[in-house]
Amino acid sequence: AEAAAEQLRLYRGDPAGWRGCRSTSEVAVSWRPSAEFAGNLYRGEGIVPASPRNVWECIKPVAGGLRTKWDQNVKDFEVIEAINDTVSVCRTTTPSACMRIISPREFVDVVVMKLYEDGTMLSAATNVEHPLCPPQPNFVRGFNYPCGCFCIPVPG
Q1: Residue 35's pLDDT is what?
Q2: What pLDDT was estimated at residue 156?
Q3: How far apart are CA 63 and CA 36, in angstroms?
Q4: How far apart are CA 91 and CA 111, in angstroms?
Q5: How far apart are alpha carbons 139 and 136 in whole angstroms?
Q6: Residue 32: helix, strand or coil by DSSP?
Q7: What is the pLDDT of residue 119?
């Protein structure tokens, strides 16, 4: 979990190579080739007119959280094992897509939540295997490289 958080910190601090691919008045998405796997990294950035605490309540990775209510790509989120107050092993499921052509997915990740001195909040995750969460029937087991969300306060 700590390694995933550090990787995200490095991504955030390195502006090199990001190319814009989509943007609206609310969000900008950019990408760059990954140095870790054969594929691309993607990041979305936007300013939400709300307090950082309220935004964090919508995105933080906790059982019973708001993410399953607003994110159509997250069907369920459960904590398999709480390691401590900030680190847990979690299972996230996604619904089928494209008229069920794409099967439902499940992801098992170790997740860390951090609060930095400047008020930035981070959830970072990466794939892990856990004996209490073997692959489930009717789901394709997905694999996450280091990923997550930053909630960064902006002036005003």
Answers
A1: 87
A2: 78
A3: 30
A4: 10
A5: 6
A6: strand
A7: 93
What pLDDT score does 47 carry? 93
Place of tokens 């399953």: 68
Across the chain, the runs of DSSP E, i.e. the strands, are 19-23, 28-33, 40-45, 76-82, 87-94, 105-115, 121-127, 140-141, 147-151
The closest of 58, 61, 28, 67 to 147, measured between CA atoms, is 61
Q: For the chain, list residues with pLDDT below 70.
A: none
The pLDDT score that the predictor gives to residue 155 is 87
- List the structure tokens of 100: 């069920």
How far is residue 9's CA from residue 118's CA, in Å, rounded to a whole number?
Answer: 14
| Domains along the sequence of the chain with CATH | 1-151 (3.30.530.20)
**Global pTM value:** 0.90
H or E stretch at 88: strand 87-94
The full length of the chain comes to 156
Query: DSSP secondary-structure letter at 94?
Result: E
Amino acid letter at 58? Answer: C
Segment 9-23, tens digit of pLDDT: 999 989 899 999 999
